[in-house]
Amino acid sequence: MKKLLLLFSTFLLFGLLSAQRKDKDYSEILKSKNIYEINAFLRDAHPDDPRRSVLKPRVMEMMREYIKNALPEDQKVKQMQEQLALLKRRPSTKITFDEMNAIIKQKQIAKYNAELQAKQSLVVYTPSNAKNVYITNTTVAASTTIIKDTEAEEFNLLMAVSPTEHKNKTVQILNSLFDNDPMSKDCIVLIQNKSDCNIIVRMEGVGVTKYRLAVPAHNESSVVVNKGDYLFTSIVCGAQYASQKTIQKPIMVALGSSAKK
């Protein structure tokens, strides 16, 4: 019986390895003219693979050509520029989890520093049978609200912070972003709302520790919380979301997906 189990396990492992090799078959990679395929090879291949010396210069030239001929509104140009900059400094565009966190952190610092420099915008959100009206220093725009009526009033209250409250919150978030002390009791949580609906994210910890964060559609918001275990819940365009998370370092949570292409 043990021999049969061992034999079965061996075949299963062989099958998984074969499937992985099939999913990433680079046997014809030298013929490729696809930027994404060559990028994937450079990320996966062994550092001493001789094909790197041919494919890295090729993909860099392809990126330069793409950027040169791209239309002004092409959203891929920025990504190509970033990847080209990476390839000039390293063997591939592969970045570590810590590097990705650092990039997100720097973007958040820039965002909140800009908010401190600018005046606080007044934002008014109304129930789902009306429009959202955004009143800024220079523009007035409107967009459809899809948040449930039962949460619209609460959402409005959470969004209706005074300039002083907004500034204090922004300073708190910046302090948390700059704080690298592992003994710190606080941590920042970034929520990305990729859906077409305004949402309220609720974070319930131990005892009376609770946080609520209003996040407009296609936007993001941050909150500084005490480190610990939390139950995250929300209603995203009518769908219930719930997830348990242990917060010991800054995290980003992305919710929903836009129906727009």
Q: Can you offer a commentary on this structure?
A:
With 261 residues, this protein is α+β, with helices and mostly antiparallel strands. The protein has two domains: 28-94, no CATH class; 99-255, Immunoglobulins (Immunoglobulin-like, Sandwich). Helix content is 43%, strand content 25%. The protein is built from seven helices and ten strands. The protein has helices spanning 2-23, 35-44, 52-69, 76-89, 97-117, 149-159, 163-178; strands at residues 122-124, 131-135, 140-144, 186-193, 199-204, 210-215, 219-226, 228-236, 239-247, 251-255. It has a four-stranded antiparallel beta sheet, with helices on one face. A three-stranded antiparallel beta sheet has the order 1-2-3, with no helix packed on it. Strands 7-4-10 form a three-stranded mixed beta sheet, covered by helices on one side. Helix 2 (35-44) packs antiparallel against helix 3 (52-69) and helix 5 runs antiparallel to helix 7. The longest helix has 22 residues, at 2-23. The relative contact order is 0.08. The model is unreliable at 1-22 and 120-147 (pLDDT under 50).
